[in-house]
Specification:
By secondary structure, this protein is an alpha+beta fold. It contains three helices and two strands, in the order H-E-E-H-H. The chain has one domain. The N and C termini lie far apart (about 50 Å).
């Protein structure tokens, strides 16, 4: 596919996060982008609501990013643990079958 054809497949959608509008441009799955934006928006609103004093939006965004990154890393760690256990179980089963 040529670069021109790739650009023709791009589109822009607007999402709203914490009262701000953001254009998202590219080959986007609009439903997925809506889910992502809603997740980020919910995180930021929860953080903002739990703060004792009003904070600038960029500080709330950084805290939300840290929370989301921590969730991601924990899930990645859990997936790696499950994959390791699965490999161990498969190896045990193969050893039992071949003996």
């Amino acid at each position: 596919m040529t670069q021109m054809n790739e650009k023709q497949n791009e589109r822009t959608m607007i999402v709203e996060i914490y009262g701000q509008s953001y254009p998202i441009k590219g080959k986007v799955d609009s439903e997925f982008i809506k889910q992502v934006a809603e997740y980020v928006d919910d995180n930021m609103k929860e953080i903002g609501a739990n703060m004792s004093a009003p904070f600038a939006i960029h500080k709330i965004a950084v805290i939300a990013a840290m929370n989301i990154a921590a969730e991601y890393l924990k899930i990645s760690e859990d997936i790696n643990t499950v994959n390791d256990k699965s490999r161990q179980l498969i190896q045990l089963i193969e050893e039992k079958i071949s003996s």
